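Sample A.
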Amino acid sequence: MLAGFAPTDTEATLAWMAEKILGLRVFGDAEGKMNRDLAEAGGGVLVVSQFTLYGDASKGRRPSFIDAAPPAVAIPLYEQFVAILTEHGARSNIPVATGEFGAMMEVALVNDGPVTLILEK
């Protein structure tokens, strides 16, 4: 999952987001219907920080990122979010891994199915 943070995010927001991610029924069952969550699918979570999710390209030709939390705010939010995910995920045997905050990472993914969601609270 790609995670971006706003300066207004709170611990309650992070906890809600973690629970939502762990509980979303977006994995196919035996009939191919989205009825299984991460635990039922035997999946895990890879959290990659991505401030560009807050990019605003509505004006001009260069996106603005002023809605994204600056690193001094975003790093503690990211670490807290990962801690909450890890704690809640451990209850259901859902492993949580992370990228490196602020690093230039090459991430490859296989999007298995037509599901890409943006979650905000």
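Sample B, a different protein:
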Amino acid sequence: MQFFARTMRHSDLDLVVQNENAAYENPWSKRIFIDCLRAGYQCWVLANKHQVVAHGVMSVAIGECHLLTLCVHPEHQRKGYARKIFTLLLERAAKLEATECFLEVRASNSAAIELYRSLGFVPIGERKNYYPASSGREDALIMSRSLPMN
């Protein structure tokens, strides 16, 4: 099955939230995505006519960008979709003159950390108790890389 990258639409939001709910213990709400679209953030999906398999949201301003969320539905993970949509977001940010990208990732999310490292991200710090977790709070690893990606 073929999936194509395109900008997120309001009509995608129910499917995007379903993906969030399937993938995350503490998912983003529909309201957060509405606010991101309204703010003009880079909001993209990988989709076909019937489903959205991945989405990403990035803010870009004043020479830097920040990955806010990157999600692939659990049934479609480990197929390169996260890399595809994140690479697209990084390319878009570079075109918008961002020269540095930042992100936070759960310290326990080894698959995401591996992906980010493979894309040239390096750890630059941590945020203690940043993410809600079933057993309280979890630390975030802060990572960054310079842009463009060449």
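Observation for Sample B: The beta strands are 4-7, 42-47, 52-61, 64-72, 100-106, 122-133, 136-146.
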